[in-house]
C-alpha cells in the first residue's frame, strides 16, 4: 500500500528527483551527476519490439524495413512486406504479430485483437502481444483488463524498467489525478500475477522514497519468481538507498547471473565497486555496461576509468 495520498504530478516529480532520469552519485570523494538516458536507465521502459525467432531470422532485413515503414506511417508498404514474408515463411510468428500491429495503427481493433489473441494462445511468452492488447483495452475504457495485460508484460519481461510502470501502469492507478492507497489496493488485489503486482507496489514505494517498504515488495517479487532479474536489481537499488552496499552488490550479482546482458545491473555494481575502492573491478563492470549500450556507463568511464590506463 502507498503510504499516503499523493498527486500524480508530485509522484512524477519525486521520480525525477530520486531515482529516475537524474542520479547523484558520490564516489571516492567526488560528486558526479549521471544523466541516465531513457534507453538504459532504470527509469526507461527497458522494452523493445519482439526479437527475431529462429524461423524469422532469414528475414531480418525485411522486418527492419517493415519497422521503418510503420514508423513513417507507410502502413500499406509495411503490410505488403509482411505478406511477402508470409508467402515464404508461413510459420514465422512475427507475421501475425505485425499484421495485428498494422491493424492497431489503423484503429481496426477487432482485426488487431484477432491476431493478438491467437498469438497469446500459441506463444504465451510473447510479451509484446499483451502490451498491444493492453493498449486496445485501455482505449476502450476497460481499465482492469488493461491493467492485467500490462502486468503480464511486467511478469514476463525479466529486465523490465520502471519506466514501463511509470508510463503504462501508473496512470491506470490514479483516481481523480491522485494516488489513493485504498483505490490502488482495490485495483491491485484484482491482479492475478503475484510477481508483477509486487513490482508495482515496490515501484510505488520506491518513488515515494519509502525504500524499506519498496524492498519488502521487491523481495516478495523475488520470492514469487527468483528468475526475475529486475526484481533483484531494484532490491539492490533499495539496499543502496538504505546504505547497505554489500547487500546491494549481492542483489546485482543475482540479477547479472540471471541475465548477463542486464546493463543497469552491471552499471550499479560497477559504481559500488568503485565506491569500495575496487577500481579495476568497477571499471570492468562499467565497460561491460557500456558494451551493452548503457550511456550512463560511458559518462562514468570518462570520469573514473580513463584517468589512468585500464
From TrEMBL:
Keywords: Membrane, Repeat, TPR repeat, Transmembrane, Transmembrane helix. The chain crosses the membrane at residues 20-37. It holds the Pfam family TPR_16. InterPro entries: TPR-like_helical_dom_sf, TPR_rpt, Ycf3. It comes from the Bacteria. This is Tetratricopeptide repeat protein. It comes from Natronogracilivirga saccharolytica.
Amino acid at each position: 500500500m502507498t503510504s499516503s495520498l499523493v498527486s500524480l504530478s508530485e509522484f512524477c516529480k519525486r521520480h525525477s528527483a530520486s531515482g529516475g532520469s537524474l542520479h547523484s552519485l558520490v564516489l571516492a570523494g567526488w560528486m558526479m551527476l549521471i544523466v541516465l538516458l531513457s534507453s538504459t536507465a532504470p527509469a526507461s521502459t527497458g522494452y523493445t519490439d519482439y526479437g527475431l525467432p529462429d524461423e524469422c531470422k532469414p528475414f531480418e532485413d525485411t522486418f527492419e524495413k517493415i519497422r521503418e515503414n510503420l514508423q513513417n506511417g507507410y502502413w500499406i508498404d509495411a503490410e505488403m512486406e509482411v505478406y511477402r514474408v508470409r508467402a515464404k515463411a508461413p510459420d514465422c510468428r512475427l507475421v501475425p504479430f505485425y499484421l495485428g500491429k498494422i491493424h492497431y495503427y489503423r484503429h481496426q481493433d477487432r482485426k488487431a485483437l484477432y491476431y493478438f489473441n491467437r498469438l497469446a494462445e500459441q506463444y504465451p511468452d510473447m510479451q509484446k502481444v499483451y502490451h498491444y492488447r493492453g493498449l486496445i483495452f485501455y482505449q476502450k475504457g476497460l481499465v482492469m483488463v488493461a491493467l492485467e495485460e500490462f502486468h503480464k508484460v511486467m511478469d514476463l519481461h525479466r529486465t523490465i524498467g520502471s519506466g514501463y510502470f511509470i508510463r503504462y501502469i501508473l496512470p491506470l492507478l490514479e483516481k481523480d489525478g491522485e494516488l489513493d492507497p485504498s483505490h490502488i489496493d482495490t485495483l491491485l488485489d484484482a491482479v492475478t500475477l503475484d510477481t508483477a503486482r509486487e513490482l508495482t507496489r515496490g515501484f510505488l514505494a520506491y518513488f515515494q522514497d519509502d525504500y524499506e517498504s519498496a524492498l519488502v515488495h521487491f523481495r516478495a517479487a523475488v520470492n514469487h519468481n527468483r528468475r526475475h532479474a529486475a526484481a533483484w536489481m531494484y532490491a539492490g537499488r533499495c539496499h543502496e538507498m538504505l546504505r547497505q552496499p554489500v547487500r546491494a552488490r549481492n542483489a546485482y550479482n543475482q540479477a547479472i547471473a540471471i541475465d548477463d546482458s542486464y546493463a543497469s545491473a552491471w552499471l550499479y555494481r560497477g559504481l559500488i565497486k568503485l565506491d569500495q575502492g575496487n577500481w579495476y573491478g568497477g571499471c570492468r563492470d562499467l565497460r561491460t555496461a557500456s558494451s551493452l549500450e548503457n550511456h550512463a556507463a560511458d559518462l562514468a568511464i570518462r570520469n573514473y576509468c580513463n584517468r589512468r590506463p585500464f
